[in-house]
Automatic annotation (TrEMBL):
Membrane topology recorded in Swiss-Prot or TrEMBL: Multi-pass membrane protein
One Pfam family matching this protein: VIT1
Keyword annotations of the record: Membrane, Transmembrane, Transmembrane helix
Subcellular localization, as worded in the UniProt entry: Endomembrane system
Protein name: VIT family protein
Positions of transmembrane segments: 20-43, 49-68, 151-173, 179-201, 208-226
Length: 230
């Protein structure tokens, strides 16, 4: 009989949020970098094919650049997490008393008496020593590491999707609507990414939305001005 494949561990909330974070940041960068190129080129030339190719090229470059950056960044984080696990594995062998003391201090800060905290520490370290230390010291779950591929693909897809908004608006809207339509599309898009980033980061939604819209407007203005110089 063939052995069944082990089930993939269910993602933790932190892992899911990390993938969503990569997606939101990728989308925001896709919007702003593509509209920056579009405004610069469109201000310098009225050739629609040139504008489209410039925007499309930047969209692809941005998407793959963001994906590569996320992969490298999260890979480093994953390596650090694994190193932490190995460090604690060794400490449990060489400095067990200090590990017990660390767990005891943790529970005492939660209001548990010293005697009870010591009993909890002894019990936890007898049953799940490495899992306990990783959880208490680093707020991690043993066996769960940030996935660089999830972050990379999330960023790749979202940066591409974000860049499509200004690209489509500038390319396909009627001439009379190109500029206002693109400005509106970008403003609404970055407002949405600002909202999502605030929700994920538990920040102030209003501040994040306004900040993102202002950054978007400034980005468009600067690149338009640069385009008019040529």
């Amino acid at each position: 009989m063939s052995k069944s494949k082990p089930k993939k561990a269910k993602q933790t909330m932190d892992e899911k949020l990390n993938t969503l974070r990569a997606g939101v940041l990728g989308s925001n960068d896709g919007i702003l970098t593509v509209v920056g190129v579009l405004f610069s080129v469109a201000a310098a030339t009225s050739n629609q094919f040139t504008i489209f190719i410039a925007g499309l090229s930047d969209l692809l470059a941005c998407a793959f650049s963001m994906a590569g950056g996320e992969y490298a960044s999260v890979s480093t984080q994953k390596d650090t997490e694994k190193a932490v696990v190995e460090k604690e594995r060794q400490l449990l062998k060489t400095n067990y008393a200090d590990e017990v003391a660390a767990v005891k201090r943790h529970y005492m800060t939660l209001g548990v008496t010293e005697k009870t905290a010591l009993a909890i520490a002894d019990d936890l370290l007898a049953k799940k020593p490495l899992e306990t230390m990783i959880s208490i010291k680093y707020d991690m779950q043993l066996g769960h590491y940030m996935n660089p591929w999830d972050a990379a693909f999330s960023s790749l897809f979202s940066a591409s999707a974000g860049g499509v908004f200004p690209l489509v608006a500038m390319t396909f809207l009627p001439n009379a609507m190109k500029w206002p339509g693109t400005i509106l599309a970008v403003s609404l898009s970055v407002a949405l990414t600002g909202y999502l980033s605030a929700v994920l980061g538990k920040g102030n939604v209003k501040t994040a939305v306004i900040r993102n819209v202002i950054v978007g407007i400034i980005t468009m203005f600067i690149h338009y001005y640069i385009g008019t110089l040529f």
